[in-house]
Amino acid sequence: TVVVQIVDAFLYVAPSGSDASSGSSWAEAKATLQAAVDASPPACTVLVSNGVYESGGRAIEGGPTNRVVLARWVSLRSVNGPLVTTIRGFQGAIETGDFTSVRSAYLAPGANLVGFTLTNGSTWWTGDQVRAQSGGGVWCESPEALVTECVITGNRAAWNGGGAYG
Question: pTM (2 decimals)?
């Protein structure tokens, strides 16, 4: 006998939330995308309310900080789409070797990013051409990462894929 239990796992993010909250409901929403993703169990869907998300983040493998890193099988999904839900990176002075640039999103295999505007993301000017200098808006580790229903605009990269790479 095999017992299979299917659990719908959701976490919630809203600009009015708090990263000290559990994220288990809209009333307990997290404030930053990264805090919600970090708190999510595998195969979770993180639902994101309308707003501009421009704080928080994480660096991956010696590259720039990413506003949100989906490092495992997780789905980050806006509730009302890219016209009202934005992930905003930061464009430092890449020509001068400035390391303050922030890419909008990084996706590992199995991760899904659905329904956002990705803007103002940027890479470093130096470092590994693929990981540090490519994909200012979004960097996908493999074809098994999915970016859909997104608007990618106003991003830049020092080497390849100002908007997207991978």
Answer: 0.93
